[in-house]
């Protein structure tokens, strides 16, 4: 009989202290510890269960549909063979939806996906050969409503293969498919009549300068590099009718207005594993048993990445949004990032020059200090009832939420906390300040957001209303993706228009302002959440609702002018569901060539050129490209459209010495607005390419 080594996933001490709670907790939601894009120590060791991003947005093509997307497996190398990434067999992937905060704290709808893999040709080390695929994945999809039993919606759902390269995908010795596009679109199916589903590899739609930001806030806008560019991820994408998400079964057209509170949903995703993995000491095979334990979750982006300190990251994943600890609210009310956006008094703003344009209000209206540990507007907790009547700052007994929002020593409980944990209500002061009398943030203003859906029965937090979810008001119309007013700044762009544009800033009438459908009202693929969240911590929301920056630089101009240098995805999104681009091919994904065939055979060479993402990007008239040459060489630089057609040659075989260079490229009138690729090469060897977004 084989011998086995049995290793519990739960640390022994934690298991001993929580066993009673685990037994009482249902197998559906038994949580452990871990979360996303390698955001927590434990999940960094378990990439197949790592939930990297969650998106929720009203469909731009069909106003009666909502898209919900959960991505897993971070930073996949497209060329990562021979065992390419795919979904894990021993993982429960779940998408959770809350549509009624007045119900007991549990999901109102849960979609569960489980996967299995088979080898069709186990006599080869290749993943694909002669029409057969190894590690071929299929899925089962189930749904639970109001905590009921899970009901199967689909079995043997097809997951497209990895986009290995042309010989494997379209070649006669491979699958012989017409194209990878055909394999991709064939995997989009309908279940339950009108729900579209896609599970499979895609281009990772997230974009951020990972290297710069995590180098102690080293923002480098003019030399930023997208750390997620040309990398893939695996997605579970759903397109669901609003009537199947809205708590009363209403369609989008039946909303009372574009901020109807009955159309707010909360979305989060998770991955769970069984608590015990057993490894055979005879043949190395593995078996899984025990209670299902949540090891990853994600709702609002960057919550675990930059809000939770490292000592709390794993524990944050032990909880669900319905059971979060009070410490999560403390971190949101005094976010660590705030320490680097103020000066003096023990703050560290001068130590992080990349945040120089982000300076929190320290004396707004001559009295309110939002520096970490200060009191913000918490003094209003004791304001006369008449002065706060009809506002969010009224006491809970009077129909407001003052005890939750106004916390002494926790200044960001008034803005960052509700954005993440309850959603933002359509009540003063959370309305635009354009028509408010000066110095009166509690006066009625211009409505522009309502994502408010508090959670009841949470004893861990004051008033029991907090829980991290991505909240979306499904009644808000969409901004056309081809509109000149569409902005990756999401709801912040809507606020700027609402405050400055004559179409909106002279009345408090409820109107649709472009980008009201953007983050943090849900999250669109295009939304630049890194920039938005940094600006929010920098106090821009407070300013918009009537708590302005004090006089002096950098102020509002500084925060609105803040740039990270990476503000768009490295490739255009698709125009139809599931909207994310095809996964990068393993033979085409490398952006920089560090080896080539030499005269005497294969040799490794150092990187010849280090090129920055162009800045600004997107651009209108011109864009600057900076690059560094490490080896004396002739360089060619040209611009192509997304079909590969060359539209401009910037230089051809121009000699370069070792050194740093910069050039401005101004496209001619023959170059229409659109997305292009700039390529740097020497001879026939491509050294680097980058995306250019040209607006007109």
TrEMBL record:
Say yes or no: keyword Lipid biosynthesis present.
no
Q: Which residues form a coiled coil?
A: none
Signal peptide from the UniProt entry: 1-29
* Keyword line: Signal
Would the keyword Protein biosynthesis be found if you checked this record's keyword annotation? Answer: no
Q: Under which name does UniProt file this protein?
A: Por secretion system C-terminal sorting domain-containing protein
**Species for this entry:** Hymenobacter psychrophilus
């Amino acid at each position: 009989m084989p011998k086995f080594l049995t290793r519990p996933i739960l640390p022994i001490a934690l298991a001993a202290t929580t066993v009673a709670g685990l037994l009482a907790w249902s197998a559906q939601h038994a949580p452990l510890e871990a979360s996303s894009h390698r955001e927590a120590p434990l999940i960094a060791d378990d990439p197949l269960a790592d939930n990297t991003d969650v998106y929720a947005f009203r469909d731009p093509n069909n106003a009666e549909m909502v898209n919900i997307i959960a991505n897993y497996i971070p930073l996949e190398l497209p060329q990562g063979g021979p065992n390419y990434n795919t979904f894990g067999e021993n993982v429960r992937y779940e998408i959770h939806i809350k549509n009624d905060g007045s119900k007991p704290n549990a999901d109102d709808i849960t979609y569960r996906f489980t996967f299995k893999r088979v080898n069709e040709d186990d006599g080869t080390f290749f993943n694909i050969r002669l029409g057969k695929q190894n590690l071929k994945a299929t899925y089962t999809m189930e749904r639970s409503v109001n905590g009921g039993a899970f009901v199967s919606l689909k079995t043997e759902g097809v997951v497209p293969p990895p986009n290995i390269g042309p010989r494997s995908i379209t070649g006669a010795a491979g699958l012989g498919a017409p194209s990878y596009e055909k394999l991709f679109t064939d995997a989009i199916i309908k279940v339950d009549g009108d729900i579209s589903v896609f599970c499979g590899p895609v281009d990772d739609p997230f974009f951020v300068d990972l290297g710069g930001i995590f180098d102690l806030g080293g923002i480098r806008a003019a030399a930023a590099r997208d750390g997620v560019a040309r990398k893939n991820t695996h997605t579970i994408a759903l397109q669901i009718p609003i009537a199947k998400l809205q708590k009363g079964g209403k369609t989008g057209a039946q909303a009372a207005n574009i901020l109807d509170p009955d159309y707010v949903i909360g979305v989060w995703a998770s991955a769970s594993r069984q608590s015990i993995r057993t490894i055979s000491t005879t043949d190395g095979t593995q078996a899984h048993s025990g209670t299902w334990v949540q090891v990853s979750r994600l709702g609002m982006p960057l919550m675990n990445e930059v809000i939770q300190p490292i000592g709390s990251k794993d524990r944050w994943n032990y909880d669900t949004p319905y059971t979060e600890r009070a410490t999560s609210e403390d971190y949101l009310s005094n976010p660590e990032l705030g320490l680097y956006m103020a000066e003096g008094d023990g703050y560290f703003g001068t130590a992080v020059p990349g945040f120089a344009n982000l300076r929190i209000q320290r004396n707004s209206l001559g009295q309110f200090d939002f520096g970490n540990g200060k009191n913000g507007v918490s003094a209003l907790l004791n304001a006369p009832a008449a002065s706060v009547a009809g506002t969010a700052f009224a006491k809970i007994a009077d129909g407001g939420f003052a005890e939750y929002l106004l916390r002494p020593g926790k200044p960001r409980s008034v803005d960052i906390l509700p954005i993440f944990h309850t959603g933002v209500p359509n009540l003063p002061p959370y309305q635009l300040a354009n028509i408010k009398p000066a110095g009166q943030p509690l006066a009625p203003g211009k409505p522009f957001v309502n994502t408010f859906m508090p959670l009841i029965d949470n004893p861990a937090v004051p008033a029991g209303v907090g829980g991290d979810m991505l909240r979306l008001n499904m009644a808000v119309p969409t901004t056309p993706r081809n509109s000149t007013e569409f902005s990756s700044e999401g709801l912040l762009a809507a606020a700027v228009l609402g405050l400055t544009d004559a179409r909106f800033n002279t009345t408090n009438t409820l109107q649709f302002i472009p980008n009201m459908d953007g983050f943090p009202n849900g999250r669109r693929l295009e939304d630049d959440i890194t920039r938005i969240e940094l600006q929010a911590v920098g106090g821009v929301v407070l300013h918009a609702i009537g708590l302005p920056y004090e006089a002096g630089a950098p102020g509002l101009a500084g925060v609105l002018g803040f740039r990270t240098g990476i503000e768009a995805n490295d490739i255009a999104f698709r125009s139809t569901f599931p909207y994310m681009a095809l996964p990068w091919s393993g033979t085409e994904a490398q952006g920089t060539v560090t080896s080539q065939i030499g005269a005497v055979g294969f040799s490794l060479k150092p990187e010849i050129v280090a090129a920055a993402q162009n800045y600004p990007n997107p651009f209108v008239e011109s864009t600057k490209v900076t690059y560094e040459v490490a080896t004396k060489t002739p360089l060619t630089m040209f611009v192509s459209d997304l079909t590969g057609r060359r539209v401009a040659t910037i230089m051809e075989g121009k000699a370069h010495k070792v050194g740093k260079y910069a050039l401005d490229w101004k496209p001619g009138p023959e170059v229409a607005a659109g997305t292009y690729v700039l390529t740097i090469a020497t001879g026939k060897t491509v050294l680097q390419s980058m995306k250019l977004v040209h607006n007109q």
